[in-house]
TrEMBL record:
Organism: Asaia krungthepensis NRIC 0535
Top-level taxon in the UniProt lineage: Bacteria
Name under which the protein is recorded: Uncharacterized protein
């Protein structure tokens, strides 16, 4: 019989073989079958290495699976442990505490600053495996479900299919921190089609994010509340949505081009809700809205803020209406539909060192036209104007228009 630890290796192990397990010095031994060893929970200490040839291994605690730095957490049912992983130790310094790994079924923490978890899937493999799988699956790199099935009311449970945090620690002032970056990489050239609100996805189109509702279910579902929601938790965002100056095709934010930041369909718009409460809901009602009901491009208008004024043009760029800027505006013009006894009209509100004049400037040969019923035709003109005179300046010359009272000229 060969001496201990010098047996020839067997090509394979089927399970019923009896294996001898011994301490390194060979003093204590234990007989076990391969199936018994495979079914035994393995608690292993971290190796401290990353590559297999240097001694790296996977660490497992019973039914929980910890990789890398996560294996430093002893998988106990308390956060107050003597030996913590680096993430729990960092979270313990904050107001919320080290909750991440305490409730984790599986976790991977990088010890070396590398990617903690990588997943990939290929459509070519999905196509090749369709006979084996019985269908052609969607190729998904990472899939997650958070199921809300607690029907008690009230309840404190909340479902998250994905949750992430990016922490900026004190003194980090050079590089930004991202909760998530989604990169769309197009290696296939221009897409075969155009993405529009009426046809969002085109052949070959590459999209950084798509937010759907319904999960592909064909029955039993209802409309979801919102695609993107910004909340304070408890801090606020300085900007809700920000487009980098060169992030849109067509312009770099400084040239004369144009980049389309948001595209919506007809009858879709933007609402500003009021802080009023109605039906026990604050913000239920809209106080202002901006939307379009234009059904043909040739009937549309464009709103543009330019260096030389605020302009409304048609879709060909031809000017319809403009407001020119003033370096030192001292007057404001109010256009109102009168209330009570006030008449609808245009009112000049005089400002400091301003002018009370209201100018009307027709083109050469043009007219100022007004439509009004004719009163007292054929009557003699009174010798005096009871209401005084209205001052008009036409082509640089002052004129006075007499203002006769109703009693002077009749109804």
């Amino acid at each position: 019989m060969p001496k201990f630890n010098s047996y020839f290796p067997v090509p394979s192990v089927e399970g019923p073989e009896v294996l001898i397990i011994a301490t390194p010095d060979g003093v204590e031994t234990l007989n076990a079958t391969a199936s018994q060893i495979a079914g035994a929970p393995a608690n292993s200490m971290p190796s401290g290495a990353f590559f297999a040839e240097e001694g790296a291994k996977i660490s497992r605690f019973g039914d929980r699976f910890f990789i890398g730095g996560a294996s430093d957490y002893p998988a106990l049912n308390t956060r107050d442990v003597a030996r913590q992983d680096w993430l729990s130790a960092l979270m313990a310094t904050t107001s919320i505490g080290p909750w991440a790994l305490e409730n984790a079924q599986a976790a991977s923490l990088s010890r070396f600053g590398n990617s903690a978890f990588v997943a990939g899937s290929r459509t070519s493999d999905a196509l090749k495996s369709r006979d084996m799988l019985g269908h052609t699956p969607s190729t998904i790199g990472v899939a997650a479900w958070g199921i809300a099935d607690d029907t008690t009311n009230p309840t404190v449970t909340t479902a998250y299919a994905y949750y992430g945090e990016a922490w900026r620690m004190p003194g980090v002032n050079y590089q930004p921190s991202f909760v998530m970056e989604l990169e769309a990489v197009n290696l296939g050239g221009p897409a075969h089609g155009v993405s529009t609100p009426y046809h969002p996805n085109c052949g070959g189109g590459t999209y950084a994010i798509q937010i759907g509702a319904g999960g592909g279910q064909t029955e039993g579902t209802a409309d979801c509340e919102a695609g993107i929601v910004f909340v304070s938790n408890p801090d606020s965002w300085k900007t809700g949505i920000l487009f980098g100056h060169a992030s849109l095709s067509g312009t770099n934010g400084q040239d004369g081009g144009y980049g389309n930041a948001i595209s919506m369909a007809c009858h879709q718009g933007i609402e500003w809700r009021t802080p009023e409460t109605r039906e026990y809901v604050q913000g239920l009602d809209a106080g202002a809205m901006l939307f379009s009901t234009v059904t043909k491009t040739q009937n549309g208008q464009r709103l543009q803020f330019a260096d030389d004024g605020f302009m409304i043009t048609n879709m060909s760029g031809e000017l319809l209406f403009s407001v020119a800027p003033n370096m030192a505006p001292t007057n404001t013009v109010n256009i109102q539909a009168g209330s009570g006894q006030a008449a609808a009209g245009i009112y000049v509100q005089k400002g400091e060192d301003g002018s009370p004049n209201l100018g009307l400037y027709p083109a050469a040969g043009g007219e100022i036209q007004m439509s009004s019923p004719i009163a007292s035709p054929g009557h003699a003109v009174p010798s005096s104007a009871e209401g005084g005179f209205l001052h008009l300046n036409v082509n640089g010359k002052d004129y006075r228009v007499p203002l006769f009272s109703v009693a002077q000229v009749g109804g």
